[in-house]
Amino acid sequence: MSNAVTATELIESLGFTPRYFARDGLNMHYLDEGQGEPVVMVHGNPSWCWLYRDLVAELKSTHRCLVPDHMGMGLSDRPPDSVYRYTLDSRVTDFSAWMDKVLPSGQVNLVMHDWGGAIASTWAVRNPDRVKRLVVFNTAAFPMLADKALPKTLKLVRNTRLGAFLVERLNAFAVGAAWTSTSKSLGSKLRAAFVAPYHSTNARRATLRFVQDIPLSAADPAWATISATGEALARLQDKPMLILWGLQDFVFDRDYFNEWRRRFPRAEAIGFSDAGHYVIEDARDTIVPKIKQFLAAAG
Fold it and tell me: Which pLDDT tens digit goes with each residue over 26-70?
């Protein structure tokens, strides 16, 4: 599992069909499986559409499941910095253009994780009438909490040449996430699957740029957008929401879980004390049927 072809084979081995959305000469990969009420699942960094494989497999008999790979990630193109600006605003623009193509009208259910929360939530607060329900995994759609500091590992990657070298040359971020984002061992095959798309320096550019784009102050490119999204989240308060959280996450920890609960007091919120950042991996047997039940509920 050391090249992009293997990532394609992984998707096809699940019986899924890789699809592509062309925009500005670049191709965004996505899954479009099943029929029925649409469910859009948005991944973060350094995962890819593989994260949602079990959820797609379970829901595709009753729902249309759509899962994009962000530019530079999964099976999407890997443009150089001279061609593509790896920022939150670019991600939101990509996502919005893709949504206009695959789901130009009607309501959708959103499932979001990590950076996918910032991306999907920004689209959602700009299009609240298009949102039917939300499922929220470990993520943030607002600036870093005031009493928090960036973890040392992320600070190293975000701010130093050494961190950039470790990510681009040694694939440290994707490999590290495959080892540390769950409380249970994924096993060598699953770890390799999460890392499969990130097989070269160019293929790892997006994983580095996502970390470098973490907004910490008004001087950072993503700050204005994440701040505006955080302020506008109240537009979604009337939407049914299911919050599923891995409490062993060392970045999006219990405080972030509580912040989502504070902002959405009517949401159903479940914290898993024995789950990490990739909560859907650790608590799959509970989470997948729970989401199916949530999506089937009236309202």
Answer: 999 999 999 999 999 999 999 999 999 999 999 999 999 999 999
Task: Supply the mean pLDDT for the chain.
Answer: 96
Residues linked to residue 243 through DSSP beta bridges, in sequence order: 136, 269
DSSP β-ladder status, 63-68 and 37-42: parallel
**Buried b or exposed e, range 95-115, using 16+ CB within 10 angstroms:** beebbeebbeeeebbbbbbbb
- Asked if 284 and 56 touch (Cβ cutoff 8 Å), the reply is no
What the block records as the tokens of 50 is: 């593989």
Burial annotation 43-72 (CB, 10 A radius, 16+ → b, else e): bbbbbbbbbbbbbbbbbbeebbbbbbbbbb
CATH code, domain carrying 275: 3.40.50.1820
Domain hosting 100: range is: 4-296
Number of domains in the chain: 1
What are the structure tokens assigned to 156, written together?
A: 């190293």
pTM: predicted TM-score of the whole model, two decimal places: 0.96
Q: What is the dihedral of CA 86, 92, 96, 98, to 10 degrees?
A: 40
Rg (C-alpha) for the chain, rounded Å, is 18
| b (16+ CB within 10 A) / e for 227-252 | eebbebbebbeebbbbbbbbbbbebb
CA distance 1 to 196: 6
- In the three-class reduction of DSSP (H, G, I as helix; E, B as strand; rest coil), residue 133 is classed as strand
